[in-house]
Amino acid sequence: MQNTIPDADDGRLEVATAIAMTTGCVTVNAANDLFTTNPPDLFTRTFEDAAVGIATPDLMRTFLANLKALLPTIGASVDQIPENQALAIQVVARFVRVALLQGE
To answer: What is the spatial distance between Cα 35 and Cα 87, in angstroms, rounded to a whole number?
Structure first.
């Protein structure tokens, strides 16, 4: 079962999409106004969680490069995110939201 997450242009869709681009463990369905993820509790997990699959620094760097490509207007802010796969995904999503609200 997938969780429905409001899409409020807050960067959560881009974070989820960058994760899905990095690993085959995560899927994103953005076909409707609300996007869904599998696993449904993606944002409560860490990047290194087995259900997410970003378990190495190289994969974390790939995720960050993907996120930067999806959100080029906050590229300098994305560069500040640590290459630490133990980070909670929701922490990165909040950081992205703040960067978007500040306009970088």
So the answer is: 22
Number of Cβ atoms within 10 Å of the Cβ of 13 = 20
Number of other CB atoms surrounding residue 44 within 10 Å: 12
Place of tokens 């620094």: 57
Choose among 24, 33, 28: nearest CA to 70. 28
CA angle 64, 52, 59 (to 5 degrees): 35
List, for residues 17-74, the tens digit of each pLDDT value: 999 999 999 999 999 888 999 999 999 999 999 999 999 999 999 999 999 999 999 9
- In whole angstroms, give the CA distance from residue 63 to residue 36: 19
Residues 29 and 65: their CA atoms lie apart, in Å, by 21
Does residue 34 come out as left (phi exceeding 0), alpha (psi in the -120 to 50 range) or beta?
Answer: beta
pLDDT at 8 over 70: no
Q: Which amino acid is at 89?
A: I
